[in-house]
Amino acid sequence: MASIRRTRLRRLVVLGATVGMLVGGLADAGNAYHWSQLGWRDSHVGYPNKPYGYTQIVNRFGQPCNVDANKIYAIWTASDNGVNYTVRFHKKLGGFPTSMVTGKGGTSTNLDNDVYGHVQNNHRIGYFKSGIWGYVCRYIAGTTTWSTHAWGIAVDISASYEGASSCTSTTNKNFAHYFTTHRWRWGLDFCDPMHFQYAFDY
What we know:
By secondary structure, the protein is an alpha+beta fold. It has two domains: about 1-30; about 40-195, no CATH class. The protein is built from five helices and five strands, in the order H-H-H-E-E-H-E-H-E-E. The chain has helices at about 1-30, 35, 55-60, 110-120, 175-180, and strands at about 70-75, 85-90, 155, 185, 195. It is globular.
């Protein structure tokens, strides 16, 4: 009789745990996909081919600091200090069919819809921390070689936390794969974990 009671008790415990996991899983799923429930989709429209080296960057995006390099912008809020950063980038990397913020048309859904949409949809926005920049007409520090920021094809995120010349990541590792699976290279490859660029071999 005691063994029957123990067996029934074990079955109730397993059943309770299973129901708990199902209910918890449904709640997590509901939270994780709130943007998609509001109509967001990872659209993959108009992505430029990934450029390899200086010549291909110029062929895809024009000369450094050209008028299209900062045509589109998005406002990203740093989770640690609440500051709204205006991130400008090349029109080939977003604003399709028109930017909801600027009303200016771009040619792809890459950065402002697809990458950022994944970050929002999967509740990773808390890892966007202070020090967020996009387009800047400048050279790579200490050189006369153009930075990928000069084409509007690079963004820095969490610069206050992800130091330059660091080969490890503290916060950007929590969302970097949304960039790398959408044709971006993560600067962690060359010990600059704050940096993401839409270019390779440069």
